[in-house]
Design a protein that fits this description.
The chain is mainly β and about 850 residues long. Among the domains are: about 375 residues, 7 Propeller (Methylamine Dehydrogenase, Chain H), CATH 2.130.10; about 70 residues, Immunoglobulin-like. It is built from six helices and 66 strands. Strands 1-56-55-54-53 form a five-stranded mixed β-sheet, with no helix packed on it. It has a four-stranded antiparallel β-sheet with strand order 2-59-58-57. The protein starts with a helix and ends with a strand. The relative contact order is 0.10.
């Protein structure tokens, strides 16, 4: 069946080899697209494009179930642990036209945040939106109580950052009403006629995953109640920027952009990238020439002078995704002249991915002060005669890289929106201050430090690996750069831990320095963007990672990686990024049993430490495998989660096998039809999953699932961990940083009264009483559980022949139990 499916898909992949041609020109293009392409592919495989009707339906089911309580929620509140100081991507920022202390900012995935005290405190105001990717926010120029917000990410970086149209507020952004344009998916710009505020124009990019007729410019004559399309070029280009002449609001300028992004095609430039003008409120249009490029271009940014509305500025991005040209018109677009720019200084201003920025801004009080937003930021204060960098270098993190929006408070006060938060200058760009501690960092993976209870480490999109908790919410430490991924702490040696960056660039910290940790891995192997790495439950010196095959390191971090499998994917059929290993699982009972899941829907098992592998996919759905986890007590039980679905196709999401994967049982129960990103196994009855719309749990092995908490909006959660020491569930969200939830509110733990009692000689512990390091003597295997006298598990670890760290335990008496060999003893912690 798989071969027939591949043939069917391959027939539509004529452009596949070409889809990487743009990426080959610059690593930056691939790097900025890669994480979102990865997650788009994860939710659409094996289809060519994502089924947005199914995605909408899943979102609506969750929203209605919460509003109507048709699906039970586990009551309680998530606690935001941070970071506040690291930040996340904001696409737009606006200042209240009559109150400069009131500011609103739109996050790439986390909704709208508002401050009324000049950034001292912020709060979310759009958590009821079905989609929390915000592309633009606009105040009505005649009534500042009226605000419009457009959903979807105009930087076109993929799922889940599309939207469901436009929203309108009548109370300054506190509450909102949906105003349509659902199928337009990405709202790039909104302008309101200052002479008639019932007239609103909206620029849209449409659904970027396929060619469609929903792109272009839309007009409402009744304040957003109804819409008509007033400008359309073709089914692959949309409106990426929009200007209105405030004194002559019938005069409009739009910038068109050819943009398609899906599994088979990346169209980032084209012949339709041009500037159009209408002088009759959108009834008729003309392409502007006379000095503007007419050949193939990428994204275009527009700006208008605040003192002379006939003065228009345009930034063109070339097919190399660097600055192609800067242009200025003094006669409302009739004629254009080159605006001088410093090639030697600014040739890499856009970092090779100008499609991600494409923004130009002009000081409303001084049109000679022009700014180009890019990786860093460059300005001229004399109309283009000279240019200078007007932010610190991005690598010192005092102002984050990647600038997406800029707005003026007054002539000398400016706010910029970046991939790492919001920054303000009150001295005309001489110095900058971070003006928010909004928790909107996007985490891929999280980890728990066993040596520092309650301290969490996470790998974040474009914000590296970082550590902290609520106690230091605005002082999280930046551990490592790049895009951060899975952190793993050595449970025996507190100074040792591992992490990595995109595409399997693993590193190891030895207590003082970071060291590369990829020796032995073939550099020609195919890596997943989020390359899996796990530490053995049986020895902290044994680690596993995977490319298109599985690698083992048996004396980590001091030995080489060695392959212990052949290619476990279907081989390179569509392209290297389509065929990698996504997840690894190891039996917590039997160290010889390992599992691997792939992007192309394969699940594999070895029962002899990699000597032989068996494909156990069986009748699992033909979908991307997101996670494999094993039972904490039964060597035969294994769990698999998958992502991707189709409308009206009851594709299951979560499976369990009781026979090492030889057969599978659907345990999705009453879950809504949504992608599952991760599963944690507390016990074989008690499971937790992370989804694109929050976190769910079951206490009856998957018959009934409940959404956890009443204060987490519909945001994607990519990773979860169970912290038994703090008794909390930890969620790494891709929109609102790291959150925790009380574990005893999810699962009512039974009091253990019948822990096996065996003779002292079967397991010896010393010293007893103990301070920080408890040593064991005898033949010990498998997981170690430590109970307090009420029967609650307070410590889970593995025996590696070294002492067990008990420093986190309060003083008192405890029971230690080796479950595999049924060995037990008591000890006292001083």
């Amino acid at each position: 069946m798989k071969s027939i499916l591949y043939f069917s898909i391959a027939c539509s992949l004529i452009a596949l080899t070409g889809c990487h041609e743009d990426a080959k020109k610059t690593t930056k293009l691939e790097d900025k697209s890669a994480p979102f392409d990865q997650f788009y592919f994860q939710r659409s495989y094996p289809d060519n494009t994502l089924d947005m009707e199914a995605f909408d339906a899943a979102s609506e089911i969750v929203r209605k179930s919460l509003a109507g309580n048709s699906q039970k929620n586990i009551d309680g509140s998530w606690t935001a642990q941070g970071p506040g100081n690291i930040g996340g991507r904001f696409n737009c920022v606006v200042v209240h036209p009559e109150d400069e202390l009131t500011i609103m900012a739109g996050s790439a995935a986390g909704g709208i945040f508002k401050t009324t005290d000049n950034g001292f405190s912020w709060y979310p105001v759009a958590d009821e939106f079905a989609y929390l990717a915000i592309g633009c926010i606009t105040y009505d120029p005649t009534n500042s109580d009226i605000v419009y917000a457009g959903t979807g990410d105009p930087n076109i970086s993929g799922l889940p950052h599309v939207g469901n149209g436009i929203y309108k507020s009548l109370d300054g952004g506190e509450t909102w009403e949906h105003k349509g344009l659902v199928n337009q998916r990405i709202i790039s710009r909104i302008v309101v006629n200052p002479l008639d505020n019932s007239e609103v124009f909206v620029g849209t990019m449409g659904l970027p995953f396929d060619r469609n007729d929903d792109r272009g410019l839309y007009k409402s004559s009744d304040g957003g109640d109804t819409w008509e399309q007033v400008h359309y070029v073709n089914d692959e280009s949309g409106v990426i920027d929009l200007l209105m002449n405030p004194s002559k609001p019938d005069t409009l300028f739009v910038a068109m952009w050819n943009r398609i992004r899906n599994n088979q095609e990346s169209l980032v430039h084209g012949p339709d990238a041009k500037v159009w003008r209408s002088v009759d409120a959108g009834d008729t249009w003309e392409v502007l020439e006379n000095g503007l490029p007419q050949d193939t271009s990428s994204r275009i940014g527009l700006a208008m002078s605040g003192s002379n509305f006939n003065h228009i500025f345009a930034l063109y991005v070339g097919t190399d995704y660097q600055i192609k040209g800067l242009y200025r018109s003094a006669d409302a677009g009739e004629n254009w002249e080159d605006l001088n720019w410093d090639f030697d200084l600014m040739n890499n201003a856009l970092g090779g991915f100008g499609w991600y920025f494409g923004q130009i801004r002009v000081n409303p009080w001084n049109e000679d002060h022009i700014t180009i937003l890019g990786v860093d930021m460059y300005s001229t204060f004399d109309g283009g005669d000279t240019w200078q960098s007007t932010v610190p270098p991005w690598w010192d993190y005092s102002v984050h890289a990647d600038k997406h929006d800029m707005t003026y408070v007054d002539e000398n006060s400016i706010i910029i929106a970046t991939d790492g938060g919001l920054y303000r200058s009150d001295d005309n760009m001489q110095t900058w201050n971070d003006i928010e501690n909004i928790q909107n960092t996007q985490f891929y993976r999280i980890g728990i430090n066993p040596h520092s209870p309650g301290v969490y480490t996470g790998g974040a999109q474009d914000n590296g690996t970082t550590t902290g908790n609520l106690n230091v919410v605005n002082e999280w430490f930046r551990d490592y750069g790049g895009d951060g991924f899975q952190p793993i702490y050595d449970p025996e040696i507190s100074d040792y831990w591992y992490t990595g960056t995109q595409n399997g660039n693993l590193v190891f910290f030895d207590g003082s320095d970071w060291n590369g940790f990829t020796d032995g891995i073939d550099s020609d192997d195919r890596n997943n963007w989020d390359t899996p790495i796990i530490m053995s439950a049986h020895s902290s010196e044994v680690l596993y990672t995977a490319t298109h095959r599985v690698y083992e390191n048996t004396n980590a971090p001091w030995s080489l990686w060695n392959p212990i499998s052949e290619d476990l994917t279907d081989g390179v059929i569509f392209g290297s990024r389509f065929h990698t290993i996504t997840t690894l699982g190891e039996s917590r009972v039997d160290a010889n049993i390992l599992y691997a899941g792939t992007t192309d829907a394969n699940v594999w098992r070895t029962t002899n430490s990699g000597a032989d592998w068996t494909n156990i996919t069986g009748d699992l759905p033909e979908r991307y495998v997101t996670n494999v986890k094993t039972s904490p007590t039964d060597p035969n039980v294994v769990y698999v989660t998958l992502s991707g679905y189709k409308d009206n196709d009851n594709t299951p999401h979560v499976f369990r096998s009781d026979d090492l994967g030889d057969s599978w049982i659907d345990i999705s129960g009453d879950l809504p039809d949504l992608p599952i990103n991760h599963i944690e196994v507390h016990s074989d009855d008690k499971l937790v999953i992370a989804t694109d719309f929050g976190v769910y749990a079951t206490s009856d092995a998957g018959q009934v699932w409940e959404r956890i908490g009443n204060n987490m909006p519909l945001i994607p959660v990519f990773d979860i961990e169970i912290d038994t020491i703090q008794d909390v569930l930890v969620a790494g969200t891709f929109a609102r940083s790291i959150m925790t939830f009380p574990l005893d509110s999810i699962f009512q733990e039974p009091i253990v009264t019948d822990i096996p009692r065996v003779p002292l000689s079967s397991i010896q512990v010393f010293p007893n009483p103990v301070e920080d390091k408890l040593k064991l003597q005898g033949v010990i295997e498998g997981p170690i559980l430590v109970f307090d006298l009420s029967g609650k598990i307070v410590l889970q670890t593995r025996w590696s022949g070294k002492a067990i760290d008990t420093s986190s335990l309060p003083s008192g008496e405890y029971i230690i139990h080796c479950s595999v060999q049924n060995k037990t003893n008591r000890f006292i912690k001083k």
